[in-house]
Amino acid sequence: MTPSPHSPRPASEEVTAGAPAPASPASDVLTPRRHLALVTISLAVALVIADGTVVNVVIPDIVADLAATSTQVQWIQEAYTLVFAALLLVFGVLADRVGRRRTLVAGLVVFAGASLAAQLAPTPDALVATRVAQGVGGAMILPTTLSLINAGYTGRARGIAFAVWGSTIGGMAAVGPLLGGWLATAVGWRWAFGINPPVCVVLVVATLALVDESRSPRSRSVDPVGAALSVIGLAALTFGLIEGRTLGWWWSMGAFTIGGWTWPLAISPVPVALAVAVASLAGLARWALVRARAGRDALIDVRLYRIPSFRDGSIVAAIVSMGEFGIILALPIWLQNVRGLTALQTGWLIVVLAAGSFASSGVAATLGRRMRAVTVVRLGLVAEIAGVGGVGVAVWLGPGWGWLVPALFVYGVGVGLATAQLTGVVLQDVPREESGAASGAQSTARQLGSALGIAVLGTVLYATAGSVTADAIADAGTPPAQASVLAQAIVDSSGGLIAGLDADGQTAAADAGRAGFTAGTRDAAFAAACALVVGLAATATLGRRREEAE
What we know:
single chain; mainly alpha; Growth Hormone, Chain: A; 2 domains; two-stranded antiparallel ribbon; 4 strands; disordered N terminus
């Protein structure tokens, strides 16, 4: 069989510096130096993932200190995610061209500077600006770490590296709230950002000392039009998914303000953003095809999507991400505002998920040597479905932790197994010179799936909570109109009013709020399990090597 233009190439074609070529026998062996390089890469990933979750826990302290408005709070939370998702693909491609280690170091420097500025931010608007800069740094770091693993590790070492990388993502998504709660309690919210610069300095030194440089051997031209279409399309899509529930999916439900400017139309900005996203991303696809036919370089090589494992695996990754981390939105709300736990106590409970994820990293590598990677993915997804379904049952049953703690651990084990091996499956047939582009595209698919999951599960959570709360208040004898207003206030506060209602003697309304958010969290967990079932079914298209499809 004649090799296709995109068959995996020998690593000798991959430009490296400072070490033997990745395809050498040493690439299959994790020497002490390569172990330390993997630890460095994984810590860089941990930094980015934790920063995406830690801020949510310290928001009340930020509001109290900086007198931030609800609009400013919204942008403090979402500016990072918006910029991060929009730039993943661009920086993944850029890393292939200018050097992956160089891009990682630059990302760490940007992230450190932005974090220091966030720690010192005197106003909410200044903090929003620093969150934008953090998103830029994070987008430089995440796909680059993945492409460094894909280009630099092979065989057994590759399986271990992906297992560690995947479990780090799953674990840090759970550790972030604990870290934020501890910092807010012990030293203040500013140290949620202040902890990053010294860690970044250590990681820069370690990266330069331990991680070998690599880049694509192909000399490729820049595609500014493709980059612009990608950034606009992904930013608009992420904005629409995040803001749909708050601003309205069609008609405006609340004011949308940037600085001193307010959205002037009756129609919500969300459908406008989604229309811009569709037009931009369709334009990007068309532009890439036109440039490919003309023999010119595009932002991303469309031939990557002819690789079944990459194309189908990216779809599975997006679907799985919908269910994988959406429950992390609902569970802390229920634990704190219904069960009465503090932010720190909530963090300690959710860290059980991280323990499961980290514990499964070694198991994932071992299983990967004994069975096909896609089989390990399926085992992980089955564990995730059982775990998140168990979370729903635990919430449904009420008091007691007998169901919740083991369910979270099983869920974490599933995340550690599925995330690591699925990433390996997605990239297994990608040529090494395209590692950055493919890593950026894969990370973007996951990020968009996560945003869609948060949108869907958030809608399930709040719609169910609102309906059940209003019915319960009305059943207690409150007139329907008044019950609706009170229920909406409880929902808008994400259950934060429940403790105050108890203190004011309005126990019926407080109990109604608890019932509403219990039902909403239960339904969100079951919806997440359904998304994971769809993801499991979608793995039926995986497992074939490229040659079988050609």
